[in-house]
Structure formats: structure tokens, C-alpha cells
Design brief:
- There is one protein chain.
- By secondary structure, this protein is an alpha/beta fold.
- The protein is 57% helix and 11% strand.
- The chain has 22 helices and 10 strands.
- Strand 1 and strand 2 form a beta hairpin.
- Helix 3 crosses helix 4.
- Bound molecules: adenosine-5'-triphosphate.
- Adenosine-5'-triphosphate binds next to helix 1.
- GO terms for molecular function: ABC-type transporter activity; ATP binding; ATP hydrolysis activity.
């Protein structure tokens, strides 16, 4: 296998006449640039000048309308080509807090490389990348997050870069990689990127705010954007002389990058300043279009397009680490499942919440009721308990999803944009990885309620209650996940799913008021309500064959000497339809899973334009 350290092709990124419009607003206008392999191009400009939008366009992730195109070695960049030969490091480090640096890279490598790639090759590549990004010394340290201290901010940024380097991309885009880092760490990071570019012949394009003057020397090319147009794009060595020739010399001791970004910024403090500075930006843009530097750029772009011979086009795919043949569904599922499970097991508070939040509620119910009696007065306690058995499990499922799913969703959104996997395998892995925890927590809950509080004790009755509670708990989490595919804000998903379950429980269970007494619309809507079926199972399971004594001293008439009489009045078909009710309830759970899959597919097509 050829080493990725021995590039054979002269790589390049060029952009020709790119204009970008979103919601009828022009964000970028007629941008052309060229950057050869082994070079870093730094994009500068005041806030809102269009730097990130330009990276989005190159990475084929822009949501609006694009004219013109970006080219790698003269070949038009399509989403497919960018996935194979490009990489994009976003501004935020979206890493799983409980994995080590090495594990983070290893899992990402397994998601990138074909299933046939041997473990030894994955390990070898991860070691190489750890060396490249200078993180060998923290390879076994946990990444850390908001609630757990881990590696430093600069090291996290390197891990994010490392994840993108695994496939040895030709073009590496980075959105503000130095933001939030102190100047020493920022310098080290850019030095590291510069070495990577030189050593591996990569094209590195990064946006940056206020770089220190010592970082300036690390940039080979500088692009300065203002109002979506370039006012300079050329060698960093010519920046000062270019602007000096235009009459804008850089004062002694001033940082040229700061100085010329300020010069190209629009001052919006008042109308006079705004029109003067806008006129200056337009004039700078006009001068740039007439400059030899711009002409040289255009001729480089055309040269690279003209020399994009088949041989070159093919050779840019020849790297052994290129993501040519992605792992199959099973391999991807196994990697995602393992990563989610490891991350959850190491996250002690979340793990305890998953297992004990629900089961602890059963101890409260136990304290609340202590022990069910077998007299007819106990029917009220039984009804209350039945209501809790169907209404609490789904809602705790919702709470679990709202607390733990968003981090994984963020990772999924990023990795799916990187082309690593789709929503089906992601959700399938998520649903399977929560199942063991659901089994444990619902088992504890059911055992305490069933035997502690004193439902009819036979094992088969316990099994039915456990199955219903598991089904409802799981359905609750799945529905919340589905809603989090629509709503970016998990609080919205929480309140909507909570509302669905409260209303559903009231209308379908018959525990709060008799189903027969409700108005027809509500009565019939019960047929499309999972609570109708699960409630009937719970009631029939407990009351069928239950004898209730009547106290001689009681002032109450003896209405329900046994559970079957109660069932015949309020749930006449519950015993007979037990199997049907199980099938329908199970189908609801599957329906929620399919709904989640469809929602995530649709929102992916809509390119995460979520509410
Ligand atoms: N999806 C969008 N919808 C509407 N406007 C957008 C969208 N994306 C970008 N813009 C607008 O395009 C302009 C350029 O945004 P962009 O993020 O590219 O700027 P930037 O130079 O990267 O800014 P910053 O340095 O602050 O990150 C901004 O005015 C922004 O409001």
C-alpha cells in the first residue's frame, strides 16, 4: 500500500466566478481564486463578509443558489467528489465527551473506511494521524465536554481536524479553527496546519478572525472579502506592496492583516461613514479586478482546468485512504452501536438516569400505595395504579430522549453531511443501544410494582405487565426522537410529546373517566390511541380471575365482588382481545420507529433547515 506521505500529483483548488444567493440576497459575488497544493489560503474579512458561505459553497453545503463552480485539479466539485477528496472542519467541536482521543479517531476511521479494511490498517492510520496532529501524548485522555473536564480547547480542535484528516483529503477547509484559542495555541495550530500542507501537498483553506502578525507568515495566500466580494486574493508576500501601490501603506508596527481587513470594512455607525466606506470597498474591488494579481489568478484557474487530464483526474483518487468503498450497513451499525454504548456507559450520571430514574418512581408508588388489598374498596387504588402504569413509562422515555439524544443528533448531522452514514443506520443503532437499558429499568419498575404493591403474582401476569411497560417506555422515547427530527429545540419536542401522552392517556385509558361516557368523537378517537390497547391489557391482566371481598361492616353496596364483573361493565372485550391488543400496541411502537426514520430522511433532504 502506498504511503499517504508520498503524493504524486500536484493538487489544486480553484474557484471560478462563484456567486451565491440566499433568499434573494446576494451573499457572494463573482469570486475567483486559486490555491495550489502545499499552501494555506487564509480568508479574512469583517463579520458577515461571506467567508463561511464561501467554504459552504466549496463543500457543496450551501443552501441557496450558486452560480459558477469550485474545482479540485480542474474537476468540478460535486457533493460526491467533495466527500471523497475534501474535508470540512466546522467551527464547533462536536465530539463525544466520554471517548478518548484515540477512540474518537478510531470510530471515525471505522465509519470512513471500507468494511474490508483490517483493524490493523485502521490502527496504523489512527497512529499516523495522531502524529500528524501532534496529539500522541493525549491519545488516551478523554475528550471531555460541558460537564466533564477533558483535553484543552486547542487539543479538541486538533481532534476535529484529525477526524477529517483520516481519509487524507486533498482539500481541507476549516471554519475559524483558531477562534476561542489563546494566541500561543492558535499559532501552534496554524503552524501544524502549515506543516501538514507542505508535507502532504494539501490545499488548506481557512477562515480566520484577527490573526496575530506571527501567524501571517504561515499563510501562503490571503483572501480578503468584503460585502461578498474579494478586495484581494493573492500571495501573502505581495499583500503589503499591493495595497501600498494603491496608496494604502501599512503603518509601522501595525498588523497588516488587521489593517487591511479594517480598510475593507464597511463602517455602519452613520450614513456618511457607511457610504464613504462602501465606496472605498467598491473601489478596492474594482482595483483588484484590474490588477495583475487577479489576472494571474484567472490564468492559474484556466491552466488547472486545461490540464485536468484523465490521468490527473484519476490519480487524485488513488490515495489508499480515500473513502472509495464505504463500510456496509452492518459494519456501520456495529460501529455506531458500539460508540453510543461506550459513551453512555462511561457517562455515569446519564447511565444512572437511564436505569434508575424510572425504577425509582416505582419505589415512590410502593410507598404511596404500600400494598393492594383484595376488597372492593381497593378498586380505586387499583384504578389509580393502572393509570400510573400506562402514563408514566412513555413520559420517562421522553425525558431520557430529551436529555441524551441531542448530542448524538448533533454528531449525526455533522457526520451525515460528511457523507459517513445516513439516518436509517443511525436511528437503528440508537434504538438498539437504548434497548438493554429499557429492559433493565422497566424490569426493576415492574418487579417493585407487581410484587411489592401486590398485583396478582403469577409469572405470566408479571411478563405481560413488563411487556406493556417496556413497550410504552420505548414508544415514548422513540416518539420524542421523531419530534427531535422536526424541532431543533428539544424543549419543544419535550412539551409536544408530553402533551400527546397526557391527552392520549386521558382519552384512551378509561381510568380517569369511563370511555363510554365521553362524547362520540373522543370515544371513537380512542381506537387510534396506543393507550386504549395497553390499558386494556393491564386491566384484563390484573382483574381477570381476581376475587374481591365485600366488607360486612361497609356502608358501600357490594358492586364488584370480582374483577371479571368490573371488566364486563367497563372493558367487556379486554380479556378476549388480549392478543389483538398486544399486536396493535406493538404495531404502534413500530409505527413510531418508522415515523422517526421518515422524519429524519425528510429533514435530511431539506438539508437541516429545521425549526
Ligand atoms: N442560511 C442563511 N440565511 C440567511 N442569511 C444567511 C444564511 N447564511 C448566511 N447568511 C448571511 O450571509 C452573510 C455572510 O454570512 P457568513 O456566515 O458567510 O459570514 P462570515 O464572513 O463567515 O461571518 P462571521 O465571520 O461572523 O462568521 C451574512 O450576512 C449572513 O447573515
Amino acid at each position: 500500500m502506498r504511503s499517504p506521505t508520498t503524493p504524486t500529483t500536484e493538487y489544486s483548488l480553484s474557484i471560478l466566478g462563484v456567486s451565491y444567493t440566499i433568499k434573494s440576497r446576494t451573499i457572494l459575488r463573482n469570486i475567483s481564486l486559486y490555491c495550489g497544493g502545499g499552501n494555506i489560503l487564509a480568508l479574512l474579512g469583517n463579520s458577515g463578509s461571506g467567508k463561511t458561505s464561501l467554504l459552504d459553497v466549496v463543500a457543496c453545503r450551501a443552501e441557496g443558489r450558486t452560480v459558477g463552480g469550485a474545482f479540485i485539479n480542474g474537476r468540478l466539485v460535486t457533493p460526491e467528489l467533495f466527500v471523497k477528496r475534501g474535508a470540512y472542519v466546522l467551527q464547533d467541536d462536536q465530539l463525544l465527551a466520554h471517548l478518548t482521543v484515540k477512540e474518537t479517531l478510531t470510530y471515525t476511521a471505522r465509519l470512513k473506511f471500507a468494511g474490508a479494511t483490517k483493524n490493523i490498517q485502521v490502527t496504523q492510520r489512527v497512529e499516523q494521524v495522531l502524529n500528524e496532529i501532534g496529539l500522541k501524548h493525549v491519545a488516551d485522555s478523554k475528550v471531555g465536554g460541558a460537564f466533564k473536564r477533558g483535553i484543552s480547547g486547542g487539543e479538541k480542535r486538533r481532534v476535529s481536524i484529525g477526524c477529517q484528516l483520516l481519509c487524507d483529503p486533498v482539500v481541507l477547509l476549516l471554519d475559524e479553527p483558531t477562534t476561542g484559542l489563546d494566541s500561543f495555541t492558535a499559532n501552534r495550530l496554524v503552524t501544524n496546519l502549515s506543516q501538514l500542507a507542505k508535507q502532504y501537498n494539501k490545499v488548506i483553506v481557512m477562515t480566520i478572525h484577527q490573526p496575530r502578525s506571527d501567524i501571517f507568515r504561515l499563510f501562503d495566500h490571503i483572501g480578503i472579502l468584503s460585502l461578498g466580494e474579494l478586495v484581494y486574493m493573492g500571495p501573502s508576500s505581495q499583500l503589503v506592496s499591493y495595497f501600498t501601490d494603491l496608496g494604502y501603506s501599512c503603518p509601522h508596527y501595525a498588523n497588516p492583516l488587521d489593517h487591511y481587513v479594517d480598510l475593507a470594512s464597511v463602517d455602519r455607525r452613520d450614513i456618511v461613514r457607511e457610504s464613504n466606506t462602501t465606496a472605498r470597498v467598491r473601489s478596492l474591488h474594482g482595483s483588484y479586478l484590474n490588477s495583475n494579481i487577479f489576472k494571474d489568478t484567472l490564468s492559474e484557474v484556466h491552466r488547472s482546468a486545461a490540464t485536468a487530464s484523465d490521468l490527473e483526474v484519476e490519480s487524485i483518487f488513488s490515495n489508499p485512504w480515500t473513502y472509495l468503498d464505504p463500510p456496509g450497513f452492518a459494519a456501520t451499525w456495529a460501529t455506531l452501536f458500539s460508540r453510543m454504548t461506550v459513551n453512555l456507559i462511561r457517562d455515569k450520571p446519564s447511565l444512572l438516569m437511564r436505569i434508575f430514574q424510572f425504577s425509582c418512581f416505582s419505589f415512590f408508588l410502593w410507598l404511596f400505595i404500600i400494598r393492594l388489598k383484595k376488597n372492593q374498596e381497593s378498586m380505586q387504588d387499583r384504578n389509580g395504579l393502572f393509570h400510573q402504569l400506562v402514563s408514566v413509562p412513555p413520559y420517562v422515555g421522553v425525558l431520557n430522549a430529551v436529555a441524551l439524544f441531542p448530542t448524538l443528533r448533533t454528531t449525526f448531522r455533522r457526520e451525515s453531511k460528511d457523507g459517513l452514514y445516513g439516518s436509517t443506520v443511525f436511528l437503528f443503532a440508537y434504538f438498539v443501544h437504548i434497548l438493554p437499558f429499557h429492559l433493565i429499568s422497566t424490569f426493576i419498575f415492574t418487579a417493585v410494582v407487581h410484587w411489592g404493591i401486590g398485583l396478582q403474582s403469577e409469572m405470566f401476569r408479571f411478563g405481560r405487565v413488563w411487556a406493556v411497560i417496556l413497550l410504552l417506555h420505548f414508544s415514548g422515547e422513540v416518539l420524542a426522537v421523531a419530534l427531535m427530527g422536526v424541532f431543533k429545540n428539544e424543549a419543544v419536542a419535550n412539551s409536544i410529546s408530553g402533551l400527546i401522552f397526557v391527552i392520549g392517556g386521558l382519552m384512551g385509558s378509561g381510568f380517569v373517566r369511563s370511555l363510554e361516557g365521553m362524547i362520540d368523537v373522543l370515544k371513537w378517537s380512542g381506537w387510534i390511541n396506543i393507550f386504549k390497547y395497553t390499558s386494556e391489557i393491564i386491566v384484563a391482566n390484573e382483574l381477570n380471575g381476581l376475587n374481591l371481598t365485600c366488607s360486612i361492616n361497609s356502608t358501600m353496596p357490594c358492586l364488584y365482588p370480582n374483577g371479571n364483573l368490573y371488566l364486563s361493565i367497563f372493558y367487556p372485550k379486554a380479556v378476549k382481545c388480549m392478543a389483538r391488543n398486544f399486536i396493535v400496541s406493538f404495531s404502534y411502537m413500530i409505527f413510531f420507529c418508522v415515523l422517526a426514520l421518515i422524519i429524519f430522511k425528510i429533514t435530511k433532504i431539506r438539508k437541516s433547515r429545521m425549526i
